[in-house]
Amino acid sequence: MEIKHRENAHKGSFYVEENNTVLAELSYSFAGADKLILDQTNVSAKLKAKNIGNSLVEAAVNYSKAKNIRIVPLCPFAKDLIENTPEFREVLIKKDLQ
Predict the structure, then answer these.
(1) Comparing C-alpha atoms, which of 8, 72, 76, 80 is closest to residue 41?
(2) Could you read off the pLDDT of 27-36 as tens digits, one per residue?
(3) What is the DSSP secondary-structure string of 34-97?
(4) Chain centre distance of CA 59
(5) What are the backbone angles phi and psi of residue 40, rounded to the nearest 5°?
(6) What pLDDT is stored for residue 98 in this prediction?
(7) How far is Cα of residue 73 from the mean position of the Cα atoms in its chain?
(8) Which residue from 7, 8, 23, 39 has the fewest beta carbons nearer than 10 Å?
(9) DSSP state of 1
């Protein structure tokens, strides 16, 4: 499935859609120019067993790395995945690891 990305000045999301219906989404907001707050992950029942949530978080991590910004994961799912995936941890704000 293709992960899409949309963004405006202060918010955005990584998402999957089918027939113009969003089936999975990880929303975020910016906190200044150097912090990305991951707000919430939602995945429809239709996609639950396909690890789409993991793919959305990975897209956010890759975006963060490309933009050289750090992540503050308020979403419990994203926080758990990032903290437990060694190659993702580098994008966390250091205080989030304490």
Answers:
(1) 76
(2) 999 998 899 9
(3) SEEEEEEEEE-GGGGGGTHHHHHHHHHHHHHHHHT-EEEE-SHHHHHHHHT-TTTGGGB-GGGG
(4) 6
(5) -160, 145
(6) 39
(7) 8
(8) 8
(9) -
